[in-house]
UniProtKB/TrEMBL annotation:
GO terms for molecular function: transferase activity, transferring alkyl or aryl (other than methyl) groups. This is UbiA prenyltransferase. InterPro entries: Prenyltransferase, UbiA_prenyltransferase, UbiA_sf. One of its GO terms (cellular component) is plasma membrane. It is found in: Membrane. It comes from Botryobasidium botryosum (strain FD-172 SS1).
Length: 345
């Protein structure tokens, strides 16, 4: 009898351990998906603005500093910013899912997300979001100049407000585009403060230094900002067309609804051409291979925009996927062009 009780006790202990391990695995998986760490889009859409900004800043400095020093600095800042921005984005998207949990449960494309699917509780999602914010703050402090955290504080405020825009305005995608493009001034300040430290003692003095950077460099930073804002705007508008029917039923707003299926391509096509023009201008003033860097996105985007059928979710999904591919190609070709310029300088 004693031996039988011992076996039952061991079996119960193993069962409890297996159940606990299953719950931990399910929660970890849910947190991973809350931060969109399971999708290629999640990794690309927020980090490429930082990559392009770092490359363009360092390309502009070639000739004023040793080329190898610039390449090493660009590589280090790219890696640091990518790590910080991924963590920042993970916290922000978890917050977005928390606010959208009821809507996501009513939309076919999003009902499998962790909160509506019941893979994590609301309190668990809030706990994860708070944890990710803490990790992000620590990473920014350890890896980047203090001024970068100050500029990124504005990004946190945009992230806080962004999920609510769809309840009040058709221009919610413009808010999302501003959020993604805000990575550009964050990355630019990180680059400037690495080469030109402020040595300011107080937060007020650091803000003054950031303001002086904005006043001096805005003509260079603004075109890079517009590259990301325009791309994000037409990409998010088309991406949102996959849910237009559900959004109308739920009473939420978007530029996808505002523009409509027929007017959408007519409105977005000029934005695509402006986007391509800004890429050409930014790479030209940085001394990179502007014609070559503009060629691939020009061909792909012009082909896709004329083939786009916004009433067809599959067509919208294909356009969104090709847009992510373009961002990856741009990041790689910008880096190759920068390395080439550094080698021949």
């Amino acid at each position: 009898m004693l031996r039988s009780a011992t076996r039952r006790g061991a079996s119960d202990a193993q069962s409890s351990l297996a159940s606990f391990s299953t719950r931990i695995g399910k929660t970890a998986s849910a947190c991973f998906r809350l931060g969109r760490f399971h999708t290629l889009m999640g990794y690309v859409i927020f980090t490429t603005p930082a990559v392009l900004t770092v490359v363009l800043y360092h390309a502009c400095r070639i000739g004023s500093a040793p080329s190898m020093e610039l390449v090493q600095s660009a590589a280090r800042l790219t890696l640091s910013l990518v790590v910080c921005i991924l963590s920042y984005r993970g916290a922000g998207l978890a917050w977005d899912d928390i606010i959208d949990r009821d809507i996501d449960g009513s939309v076919a494309r999003t009902k499998s997300r962790p909160l509506p699917a019941g893979d994590i509780s609301l309190s668990g999602a809030l706990l994860y979001c708070g944890f990710q914010i803490s990790v992000t703050s620590l990473l920014f402090q350890r890896l980047l100049p203090m001024e970068t955290s100050l500029v990124n504080a504005i990004g946190w405020m945009i992230f806080l407000v962004y999920p609510f825009l769809k309840f009040f305005t058709y221009w919610a995608q413009a808010g999302g585009s501003l959020l993604m493009a805000w990575v550009v001034p964050v990355a630019w300040v990180a680059c400037v403060c690495t080469f030109e430290p402020s040595n300011a003692a107080t937060v007020a003095d650091k803000w003054s230094y950031v303001a002086s950077i904005a006043a001096r460099d805005w003509m260079i930073v603004l075109p890079i900002f517009m590259i990301e804002f325009l791309f994000s705007f037409f990409h998010e508008t088309v991406y949102g067309c996959q849910d237009t029917g559900d959004d109308i039923k739920l009473g939420v707003y978007s530029t996808s609804i505002l523009f409509g299926y027929k007017r959408g391509p007519q409105i977005l096509t000029p934005l695509v051409f402006i986007y391509l023009g800004v890429i050409f201008y930014s790479t030209l003033i940085a001394g990179l291979h502007a014609h070559l860097l503009s060629l691939i996105p020009s061909y792909v985007l012009i082909t896709e925009i004329y083939a786009l059928r916004m009433e067809d979710p599959r067509s919208c999904g294909r356009f969104a996927k090709r847009g992510i591919e373009i961002k990856i190609i741009l990041s790689l070709t910008f880096w190759v062009s920068f390395l080439w310029k550094a080698c021949v300088a």
